[in-house]
Amino acid sequence: PSCFGYPLSIFFIIINEFCERFSYYGMRAVLVLYFKYFLQWDDNLSTAIYHTFVALCYLTPILGAIIADSWLGKFMTIVSLSIVYTFGQAVMAVSSINDLTDNNRDGSPDNVYLHIGLSMTGLILIALGTGGIKPCVAAFGGDQFEDDQEKQRSRFFSIFYLSINAGSLLSTIITPILRAQECGIHSKQRCYPLAFGVPAALMAVSLVVFIAGSGMYKKAKPQGNIMIQVSKCIGFAIKNRFRHRSKEFPKREHWLDWASEKYDKRLIEQTKMVLKVLFLYIPLPMFWALFDQQGSRWTLQATTMDGNFGSLQIQPDQMQTVNPILIIIMVPVVDAVIYPLIKKCKINFTPLRKITVGMFLASLAFVAAALVQVQIDKTLPVFPAAEQSQIKIINLGTHDAMVQFEPQLLHVDVKSMKSTGYMTFKTSQLQSLNITSGSKTVTKSFGLPGGKRHTLGIKINSTNIVATWLFDNVTSKPEEGNNLVRFINNLPDVINVTMGETSFGAVMPLSASSYELFSGGRQDKIKAIRNLNTCSVTSKTLGYGSAYTIVIDECADNKLNVTYSEDIPPNTIHMAWQIPQYFVLTCAEVVFSVTGLEFSYSQAPSNMKAVLQAGWLLTVAVGNIIVLIVAGASKLSEQWAEYVLFAALLLAVCIIFAVMAYFYTYVDPNEVEARLDEEEKKQAKKDREVYEKQAEAVSQM
Length: 701
Hints:
- The protein is an alpha+beta fold and about 700 residues long.
- It folds into 4 domains: about 10-225, MFS general substrate transporter like domains (Growth Hormone, Chain: A, Up-down Bundle), CATH 1.20.1250; about 285-380 and about 575-685, Growth Hormone, Chain: A (Up-down Bundle); about 385-415 and about 420-470, Sandwich (Immunoglobulin-like); about 475-570, Domain of unknown function DUF5300 (Immunoglobulin-like, Sandwich).
- It has 16 helices and 22 strands.
- The strands form 7 sheets. It has a 4-stranded mixed sheet with strand order 10-7-13-14, with no helix packed on it. The protein has a 4-stranded antiparallel sheet with strand order 9-8-11-12, with no helix packed on it.
- Helix 2 (about 45-70) runs antiparallel to helix 3 (about 75-95).
- It starts with a strand and ends with a helix.
- InterPro entries: MFS_trans_sf (IPR036259), Oligopep_transport (IPR004768), POT_fam (IPR000109), PTR2_symporter_CS (IPR018456).
- Keywords: Cell membrane, Coiled coil, Glycoprotein, Membrane, Peptide transport, Protein transport, Symport, Transmembrane, Transmembrane helix, Transport.
- This is Solute carrier family 15 member 1.
């Protein structure tokens, strides 16, 4: 059965691919944040495991191709590995349910190792599944067409590529929204089970759809795997060359010709063409090393930025959607507008030149990322080292005060109802401080632990000066754009404070509550109960990633009077500043990735496409391994420096590739095939003549 001139079975395959890509990219979008916030790993470990997983996903296709071609056939391989895949996604969803081991109900899992074990099992199964079916689905789709449907077949591959991007686009928008929901049985959490559960459900849908079309598919029998033949041919040539290494054996034109004793000329010629292309692949992994950091380092960069787009609140992991959106726009624009323009300008923009430009652009994208990182670093607070103390003074009284740090370290004037920023001192040098207001002076001695921040609350009234130390237990900027808030009670009575749904309990006069976490970008109602009177006020809009001390000054006539003191400034660099680096990287992907596969296919015989596809995917895997090695070995403490390092490495590789490309001569596989056909015909004719002569001689006897 056909529809619009296409085999009907194609539509099942395209829907299947859409669901599978949705499932994979959705899970991958939230993965690095799941490691960081749920499993509580640091940035480096999260990045390392993320890239290990991606590398695995690109190593397993070689296994999938061999299973399909030599043993199960494409259809059965897709079905059986999809079952493994669905199971992996389900395990992943279960691993992120914190109520699984949260017996004391404090909102964090008690047995983290169980969650780590489950999620690693899930990821290994997913890598087996997604990698194993990757080489089969597209080829299986191609098998559905007749030989005379060349036009429909190439249109199918375009639609197929589009369905991949549509799936990845929708899932990178939707999954982070699901992750940002609050859910949980005993305590409300970021909803990772939902963010992993929806991809798992879609994978199950994908499997059902694929099996539903079973009766319509053309299922080719497994033909034996060309990769295995090529490997054997190469292995035999090397072994044979090594055996005949002494001078008395004549040299052969090409080292692969040493396989001619065992393998036919055609396979040897085809293998030569493939190796020529694979040699060019050697520098390519460096491109993928940069490209795949969108999901790790760039997502972590977005967590320190401001995601407020007016009425929209963008999650850090949603910034990755910029890539698929731009791909869907850029691929047609580049094909229909940019390449024809370059042609008009009489520039010969060969495939290898396109790939070189792609590498150059990717390295520029990382320079852009480094520039953004430098701006972010300027806004990050500096916390005290182990031998330092940071002190902030809040004046809670109606008189100005002058504070002198002894011995003669520093003196500051603090206006009434105002506060200073944090001042950094060597803990060992601090002996005492004098607070002076009018004619009154108070001396306060230090007994502060090092490596901490402290707030000194001072209140001057008509008779005396009261000074109290308030301990700040904040050692890092709040993650995920959340805010920390605490209250200081500047009233003579005990008050009970709540903000939004969060209760701060009873706060004593001239003391501070502890800090509580609030999600970014919102306003909440602050309520204080004093001697059975309730006063309230709506807080100002807190930004993202800030910490505030809110001083309660007055509670009368149901009105609450508060002053804000900023302990940690909010994220001020906007996430929109990531768009330029995404744009440049997407342009790089369009000229690099699309061209790379086209070039490979044009330079090798049709039956060798599987080998090249495997080689291409291998470059992605190796690229992800490079990230592990570089990030692990570089020991750079500054993130911007690591970006510059990657940009420099890719630039160096780009120059090497340009030199290799300059010496590459393009071949036409069809010509080579035709020449081989011609030679085979001649050989057959010769053999026939010899045979006829022999037959004649026999008959004359």
